[in-house]
Amino acid sequence: MKIGVIADDFTGASDIALMLRNHGMNARQFVGTPDLDASDVDAGIVSLKSRTCPVNEAVEKSLEACDWLLKQGAEQIILKVCSTFDSTPHGNIGPVADALADRLGEDVVVVCPAFPENGRSVYQAHLFVADQLLNKSGMQNHPLTPMTEADLRLVLAPQTKWDVAHIDFATIAQGRTAISAALENQQKKMVIADAIQNKDLVEIGAAAANRKLLVGGSGIAMGLPANFGTNAEISPWTGKPGPALILSGSCSTATRGQVAKYAEGSADNTLELNAREMINNQYDPSRIADWALTREQTPLVYSSADPEVVKAAQAEFGQERIATAFEQFFAQLARAFVEIGGERIIVAGGETSGAVVEGLEVTAMNVGPQIAPGVPALELAENGTALALKSGNFGAPDFFEHAIKVLGSNHE
To answer: Does residue 46 fall inside a structural domain?
Structure first.
């Protein structure tokens, strides 16, 4: 293993797995830290649900993953976080990065969540989503990690014990030599790097060839495989033509648009979940799985409500109670659907994706072709079920329709 990745959620893990695969590395995604040998792959990606868990738990799980990756031979570790830098004022990005840097003996850590292909760019240390500052992009309404500040220095500083520095775009634009020189001038610092286009990330990757730890979105991996001279033979994708199901628990603007487009004229094939009925256990996963299997068109089961509706439900029932109830339901539904013959599942939302993967009791996933930037087709190692895990903000309006086709066909 050349590169080891510790991802703070499941969609982020598949996102960076696809990036590494697209740039010539044989990549495999694991669910939690496995108890097996994986030294046969170029890149190992450990998926954790550590974005919103208690800080101590996030640190402990991340260090466990780091130790396992090092045992597989990993020479470089990436802490994969969301391209919108989702976190709270107390973590978990900063504390986990601190702990990993200490474990690895690193004293300068490059931090860059940019992913230009999906509209994420960093300029003057501020994070943009398309042409909007992060705190005006809709992320300020996130139900678990609302992002109300776009200056990444101000987001990260309260979370880390280290100083936070910045390499501006004027330096980045000069290329790897200038970036390397700027990094050498830092000590015991988290360094926010500007990046507005793919070639910036390639140059950052080249400059970070000897760094033991990097922090960022999947874009930060763009320039790293070339440092190892890896050009692995990638296995062809074999799709699954059987019954499919779409599950959406994301309340992001992009996903709500995708849900609305897919649901147009398909009332018989969609089921919207209500928070009150969910709390009162009025949804039977087995019955809904049976219903889903009988649909001529791929059914959509969703809880992608408007932010104001979400806030009202959280105020009435409590944020954690609602989140737990929905995650348990989606996990049970996915498991019931596969048990009766379902072969394809498309999931929107990071927390929902994590719940589904855990519900299916997955240990590892093989990475297939791209469905959308940041979203690969996945094949479960246990039973061959085809899966797509989509971050809430990713994908075009017709993402669901396209994902169904990719998961069901044989192609690259």
So the answer is: yes
